[in-house]
Amino acid sequence: TCSRLDAIRSVYGASVARDLMEIEAADEDPSRSVFDMDGFISNANYVAKKTTMVLFINGRLVECTALKRAIEVVYAATLPKASKPFIYMSIVLPPEHVDVNVHPTKREVSLLNQESIIDNIQNEVESKITNCNTTRTFHTQNVYPSTPGLLSGSKDTQVNPSPPGTKSQKVPVNKMVRTDSQDPFGRLHAYLQEKPSGPHGKSADLAAVRSAVRQRRNPKETADLTSVQDLLNDIDRNTHSGMLEIVKHCTYIGMADDVFALLQHNT
């Protein structure tokens, strides 16, 4: 027994070995099942997020999913927050009662009269946990009374700077805010444009945007030929202002036929 506990301590640590208790179960009735089990299970003080089960059957390291689940059910029903146990068991039974042809790796095994063996072990585990649940260990933290002199001081007293040897607490990047002492609200106004007051201001801005878009789409090209330049100047001089204003507020829809085109006005 001491060698097994020492092996557990060396592999899993002293904190695990400290919270283990010995368990034994056996059945000598040939009509039900013949087996002999001894090992260690964790007590109520052991806390883990994952079940650790080390199972030896006839000296061979194997796995038995049904036995593992049965023991987990006992711990979940007895201990708070469904604590995950640590289990070390060594079961000895006749070799012909072990079926190793469950998994290709031969690690998963099945037992003859498996339900009877699991019920026997499950009852013994439940009895052990129930008896040890009344003697749990709780770790407490010492709370020291505060110094009266610190509480009686003024609220406006400046906090003493940290000693030169200590490190200041680093502020996470997502908690940092880029601000200016002269402008505590930031400088977002530099990126915002004031909205014009009244509907006339909005229409003027819209017209300016449309004009800029038209100039971008249809830039004026300087003609190399004098005749072409004279023709363009003649068109600019004879342009009808009213017709030009109407065309400016039209949207081209498409060709109606070989001669006429469809325009949509003031929409």
UniProtKB/TrEMBL annotation:
GO biological process, one term: mismatch repair
Region (Disordered) location: 146-171
A Pfam family hit: Mlh1_C
Keywords: DNA damage, DNA repair, Nucleus
Cellular localisation: Nucleus
Domain DNA mismatch repair protein S5: 8-130
Domain of life of the organism encoding this protein: Eukaryota
Record-level GO cellular component terms: MutLalpha complex
Xref: InterPro entries: DNA_mismatch_S5_2-like (IPR013507), Mlh1_C (IPR032189), MutL/Mlh/Pms-like (IPR038973), Ribosomal_Su5_D2-typ_SF (IPR020568), Ribsml_uS5_D2-typ_fold_subgr (IPR014721)
Protein name: MLH1
